[in-house]
Amino acid sequence: MANLNQLELQNLRHLIGAHCTIEKKLQFYSSQCTDAELKQMLQKDAEDAKISKDKLMSFLN
User: Fold this and answer.
1) Distance between CA 30 and CA 49 in Å, rounded?
2) The pLDDT of residue 54
3) Is residue 3 over pLDDT 90?
């Protein structure tokens, strides 16, 4: 990994936090949803947010 400057690190932390929030909200919404098709869509979007968060986290290693 290339060394990140302070601004890049702050931006990365912000993006990771945003994806984490989105993932949790979508999981909550899907748990409250009664429509099967919408529930599946929300779960898929939550999983996509988790994957994006994990990719961004890899830049910290």
Assistant:
1) 14
2) 96
3) no
